[in-house]
Design goal:
Helix content of chain A: 25-40%
Largest sheet of chain A: 6 strands, mixed
Largest interface: A-B, 54 and 54 residues
Oligomer: homodimer
Strand content of chain A: 25-35%
Number of domains of chain A: 5
Radius of gyration of chain A: 27 Å
């Protein structure tokens, strides 16, 4: 028999859907297009998909994320609940669903980003890379038709363009559809947008000379978690608008592997493509165009920096081979891709310039980011680390580049950590612990007085480093003290109370468990072991590095000293470290206003070696050695023992 | 206040729509997507939009098409009725709505058509025009990827293709989206569909070598009234399926002028494009692909022969300039147009090859038809007449070609004639009249025993010729006899009863009025005067014509002797006349399987003169002289007086 399930979304209203007994509540929410944050993609491990039963019954159970008390109050994990024998009303808390609007995102105001975006208009990064794309604007003044000169609009403009350009121009359907109005709006004077493609010149658009238009482009960074974009005047290079939001795919899992698994389900590719294009990028583009008063059709070029899986899902291309041995993507570099192919709400002829991928787990976000890192323009041995939902590394200089991906997992973005969360309001982003009282002092995202909800990546690094410094945990991440902040469950698993129930926003205790610590240590171990293996494979010691460039959402808040103390980052001089913000978007911006920058990225991709860590025979050993605070070989981290 | 109007469509079920008092019933039906045949586009003149009020009230009136008796029985003209003060249930008779399924259409079984379609596979029409398109199939066998050879699918296939073809191939989004499945279905062996476009080679599609595919194309004739198409195996030239249906735009008017007027209303272009693509061509393509068991993506080339307005509306391009002085279309020839541009349900990369237009009123149907007429391949002076919703003429031979359009109007397809109808079941398609009794003998479309409903084009020609022969009408088309079959109304307007109420399908008398006769005579006069003016402008007498090629839906049924008798066609030997069926579709078929044929059509278009009749100073005089049976100059039709 059919049940009616009502999702009461906090601050948003109700959504009703019919269901049958036994249907999974998280799946049902997805079907009803109700966003419930589920970083672990519904396998019960992250505990983020808490919902509250208001009326009726659903089948559920007490789990490590839902205490008896929680259960009695109506709390359930959506992923572990099923439609029962009655209708039900289920409250979806704001925290679980509204991450999109409150996400703390790269706002493009970071100094390093500004430097790149304030590049001179004719040269990018001061490296001799000239600006300018294959789009040109050609003005025409045509003789108006008469009864004796009844040539069609298209013949009329084509003849004039051929005269001016010395070759025939290929019309596009969109340009022809705009032709009659453009010509008649302006006494048969028009500006033609022409683009060279594969050796021929194409008529991309036609603007009446008296109409208001501006030749624009959009650069987009599609992260697994966050999507950011800039709207740019292609002639001046000026940024006209900026926007960001959470990636709507998040409800299908926090990491790329879960997204790929969702994509392989029936109609999955379309579903994930829709989540990122229709639900995420389309509103971003609309908002930017509206705020800059630009017609969406004036956007004639779009650049995209994204990891390999995001690139595939954006393009609507089956990503399954990415996660199946031998881990081969469908494409690395893909030219010949246009806005109309994916219904992006810009000029349908806008080329979608995708920063090329290096491998299945090092994508265009890294090639574009490498461009922005400038490491390719110096003899200095540099390490570029992009800490997003996954961690990717590039090591090298002007002579060579090597890249790899470390499966750090989603710990830095709140996944796999019971009290983990993304860097939205209420996230603890920094922390110190008093060695005597073991009481933490917390830095919290949000307005003055915001109460803590959980830990984001940078807060987690600080928390672990401080717990280690204060002796709360041993090098294995096991809690080895007692006190009012130390809890122990029936199985002997211990946890540290970061905030008591009355101190937290949710009224629940915020604790870090030994399981969380274990997950985190594996994540930081993955990063360090990747750095070490990559350098070893080139016969370089860690000390060869004289520059570390950190990029990505988590980066800005990282306390380098703490990251070194826990053995996550190499123990080199703190001055060697720099942060360049959203390098992926910076690179995409450069590719947007400069065809040469685009070619440079392709060159970087062609010259960059991709190292598959998992096939390196030393990797497992090094990983295990790195899953220790700071490392089994403590001599690698001499500064870790300083107070 | 809102009213509920229910359209009870005979044999189809009910459609409900909310309306407000005063809304026009025909407009309302269109809004509700209920097809009501309205050849005059709702100006009250054709009387075809009869509906029957079953319940409630609507505001309407008695007109020349709705007698008092009709009115009492509930009959109303939809175009002259408005929503009243109550809800209403309105019956839409099968006759008015179901023309689509019952239309007698060119079924491609005509001898002349068969001759063209049975062209040898390597040469078309025996004229040395070679078959073959720019589409080629290239087979590849790729090395399967391994952990040590993790090149992406696209790089892998691109490298192989570049090796085979000696140049880089440009991937398309669709081909890339098909790549992973194609390669993995068949052990990395695949067939690549490659097309040359503007000097570069494009990857249109990729088929797994073990998958079932056939390289196909579709030729479509988009008539103002009827759409016909063939699905063709591009490699063999074989026709795999055929289909036709009425043009769904018909509810927006019978002729191109009314369609253009509708298109200029808000959202009109989209609406008319949807009517022809989504509602008409899409089902045709689906049906053909289903019956031939062809995947729609295997259709990689589409050719279209259509008049200039139909071309514009198909492409979704504003046709307004066609009907505004100086009568300039947006395009004549348009290459660079693909299925994805208009969401045609075939391979999105399929080029839409449009037979080029000559002018605003001589379109691609005529250039394609001229190819099929073969007149360009002979020294013989030939006249090609396409009798569709409008009439178009081409005169000439291998040395020159001249074309013009005559505004014959919709009389031959049932418009402007009170008892006119299209050639569906119940249409009188031929007739003789007994000179003594004035009783007609009717040939009726449909199974044995079908009762008459009205007159279609060929029946109308016979009827007028016979009425003239029997002396029922004088040379001006005025009825000048009395008798039981002659009616006279209160204003003195006479009419001839073709069938009494008890003889007709509808139970209403079928009559031909003097107004009908006047409309018809103007239509036939338009055709003959166009022929005469065109020849005169070249200083040729009528007798120079030794070949008349008739094409178009109406053509097959025409009694040449009668058409000459009424002064519609030149009085030359009957043997000079031939009928070639749907020449527009035949031409589109040739262009489908032969790039050379396509080039030939472009050449014909470039060499063909377009004559704007209305700007010829003698045209009005000649037209007036032709509006007479057979002509004011009877010596032009010596055979007209034979019995």
């Amino acid at each position: 028999m059919e049940r009616k399930i009502t999702f009461a979304i906090e601050g948003m209203g109700n959504v009703e859907i019919s269901a049958i007994a036994g249907e999974n509540i998280l799946e049902l929410a997805r079907k009803a297009n109700v966003a419930i944050d589920a970083p672990c993609s519904g396998n019960g491990s992250c505990g983020k998909c808490r919902v509250k039963l208001l009326e009726g019954e659903i089948e559920s159970r007490i789990t490590r994320h839902i205490t008896e008390e929680d259960y009695a109050a109506g709390w359930r994990l959506a992923c572990e609940s099923k439609v029962g024998e009655s209708d039900a009303v289920i409250m979806v808390p704001d925290i679980a669903s509204a991450y999109r609007s409150r996400m703390k995102i790269a706002d493009l105001t970071d100094t390093a980003e500004i430097e790149i975006f304030n590049t001179t208009k004719t040269e990018i990064f001061g490296t001799g890379i000239a600006t300018g794309t294959k789009l040109t604007k050609v003005s025409v003044e045509l003789v108006e038709p008469t009864l004796d000169d009844a040539m069609s609009d298209l013949e009329r403009i084509s003849m004039e363009l051929e005269g001016q350009l010395g070759e025939a121009v290929v019309p596009t359907h969109f340009a022809v559809s705009r032709l009659p109005k453009a010509l008649r709006s302006s006494g048969f004077r028009a500006d033609c947008i022409i683009e060279e493609r594969n050796g021929a010149k194409y008529l991309v658009d036609v603007w009446g000379a008296d109409e208001e238009h501006k030749l624009c482009g959009i650069a987009i960074d599609i992260g697994t978690t966050t999507v950011s974009a800039v709207l740019v005047d292609l002639e001046s290079g000026d940024i006209l608008a900026k926007a960001s939001s959470g990636n709507g795919q998040i409800r299908y899992g926090a990491d790329v592997i879960n997204r790929i698994i969702e994509a392989t389900k029936p109609n999955g590719i379309k579903k994930l493509q829709k989540a990122v294009i229709e639900e995420t990028i389309t509103p971003i583009i609309r908002n930017m165009c509206a705020s800059a008063k630009i017609a969406k059709e004036d956007v004639c070029r779009v650049t995209i920096a994204a990891n390999t899986t995001m690139n595939h899902l954006f393009a609507g291309i089956d990503p399954e081979s990415i996660r199946m041995e031998p881990y081969v993507p469908v494409f690395m570099d893909f030219t010949g891709f246009y806005a109309a192919d994916v219904n992006l709400p810009v000029n349908p002829n806008a080329e979608l310039v995708i920063a090329p991928n290096i491998g299945s787990y090092v994508g265009g976000d890294i090639t574009a980011g490498t461009l922005a890192s400038m490491m390719w323009n110096s003899e200095e041995m540099a390490l570029f680390i992009d800490l997003g939902t996954n961690g990717e590394l590039v090591f090298g200089n002007a002579d060579f580049l090597m890249s790899c991906a470390c499966s750090a997992g989603p710990a830095f973005e709140g996944g796999d950590i019971s009290c983990g969360m993304r860097a939205t309001d209420g996230a603890i982003e920094s922390c110190t612990i008093d060695k005597e009282t073991l009481k933490p002092s917390l830095g919290i995202v949000g307005p003055e007085g915001t109460k803590p909800i959980g830990l984001c990546g940078s807060g987690l690094i600080d928390m672990v480093a401080e717990m280690f410094r204060c002796g709360i945990i041993n090098p294995l991440g096991k809690i080895n003290v007692e006190g009012e902040r130390i809890r122990s469950d029936e199985y002997g698993m211990k946890s540290y109370v970061i905030a008591f129930a009355d101190e937290s926003e949710t009224g629940r205790e915020i604790t870090l468990t030994e399981v969380d610590l274990d997950n985190f240590i594996r994540a930081k171990g993955a990063i360090f072991s990747a750095i070490k293996i990559m350098l070893e494979s080139l016969d370089f010691p860690i000390e060869v590095i004289t520059k570390v460039i950190i990029a990505g959402g988590i980066g800005s808040g990282i306390n380098i000293k703490n990251a070194i103390r826990i053995g996550m980052l190499p123990d080199i001089e703190h001055e060697f470290y720099s942060y360049i913000g959203n390098s992926s978007l910076s690179g995409a911006y450069a590719m947007l206003i400069s065809e040469e920058a685009r070619d440079k990225v392709t060159e970087l991709k062609n010259n960059m070696t991709y190292m598959e860590l998992s096939s390196n025979p030393n990797y497992m050993d090094e990983f295990v050695a790195s899953c220790f605070l700071p490392h089994t070989n403590a001599s690698l981290f001499p500064s870790a023992m300083e107070d």
